[in-house]
Design a protein that fits this description.
The complex is a heterodimer of chains A (246) and B (237). Chain A is 40% helix and 21% strand. Chain A has ten helices and eleven strands. In chain A, a hairpin with a 2-residue loop joins β5 and β6. In chain A, 41% of the residues are buried. Chain B has 237 residues and is of the alpha/beta class. In chain B, β9 and β10 form a beta hairpin. The radius of gyration of chain B is 17 Å and the shape is globular. The chains are: A alpha/beta (246), B alpha/beta (237). Chains A and B meet through α1, α6, α7 and α10 of A and α6, α7 and α8 of B.
Amino acid sequence: MRSVTKYFGGVQAVRDIDLDVAYGERKVLIGTNGAGKTTLFNLIAGDLHVTSGKIELFGHNVTNLMVHRRVRLGIRRTYQTSALFDGLSVRENLYLGLLGAGSLWDKLNFIRRTRLDKSRSKEVVATAGVIGLGERLDTQAVELSHGERRQLEFGLSVITKPRLLLFDEPTAGLSTDERGTMLKLIQDLSRDVTIVLIEHDMDVAFSVADTITALHEGKIIAKGLPEEIRKNELVQQIYLGGSVHA
Amino acid sequence: MPEPILVIKDLHVKYGGSHVLRGISLALDHGVVAIVGRNGMGKTTLVSAIIGLAPVYSGSVLFNGLSIIGLQPYQIASQGIGYVPQGRRIFTSLTVDEHLRFAARKVDGGETWDAEKVYDLFPRLKERRRQSGSSLSGGEQQMLAIGRALVINPRLLVMDEPSEGLAPIIVDQLVHTCKNLMATGISILLVEQKLAFAASVADRVEVMVTGKMVYQGDFATLLSNHQLTQQYLGVGG
């Protein structure tokens, strides 16, 4: 990202941001509430477009590309709030995730579609096993616990083998043991996948991060290795505060 | 001895064939009680039953000595129960200021909460006062949900995962806010996943497992018992 700025009306949500993410890197974004973290995600994913500046993804200028075009380049994201089909089963949700990522040709070509359906079914079962929902394939999403829903969202984001994953507070609302499960799922992802993660849980943030970027009022106020950020006085003063979160 | 502000006796809630709450009993004197437990154990259902959003199958819920079962949520709110829902549930088309002014409930005497006092607590909201709920960040929405519950000037504040999505420094502030609220005589029923936060606010804790309370006591005892925390919460070991 180069000199990326985003205005909402008169409010400058993101101010002149430069952000580099290396292939395979785990970058964590932290920052005060309203700092612009989710807006930054929306700009990278294409849910929003920049007011000014430039975004490159895998060497392509995607600044003006729509969401679906960026998805084709291998980008996936999760949301702070749940984004599942409640009336559908775990199996159907995962299947739809795969189906949505397929090309138009895949969907129109009946013979190819039938063959793909079989491989997709296998992929769905395999992914459900990885995310710990192998026994709940036919359970409706609405019947899942909050932690299981988060696991399913994780499954939806990885089932299409993305190259860049954006996780927006993946452990929010999870119990301590569920947080551990989610953390392990993220840590176990191959380094073929690049990860950018927003997280307020510092145990999770420091466990995952290769590098951390701290935002405040739309600007980057610090960036560096986890230990450097932990010791950064400005970050302590305006974000970390005391130790209740620890 | 003052009468407990909230008394729940043998409360059962069923959704269709699911028996979610299986005989919950709880008495909240003045102060804070935290309810902890893994997800899916029934904590949010208990909160929903108290504020009139879940169908009570049997049992009783008394607030200030009066039954509130069968009342509509707005009637329960008007009796002085503030509610901070999990997931914020902000009105996307209303501004911050409109949220805080339409929800306001005046009470006689004492120090009362109004929009300006909420702005003192969360200065970030004051900066955003003319913006719509939909334009707020997740953490700002959480602040607004807490503020919206405070301006009804509750005697009992029911909070479901209030720390979710908040920056660590704001969580610290929330601890102080809860303690200040207690000092002004407001009781708090806190459902929370973050044990460190819950233990900072509440002395007393109840652990819920599959619709029943399995531990009632003080936080320090619970946290020092690795067997209990491992068994009920999946922590430590």
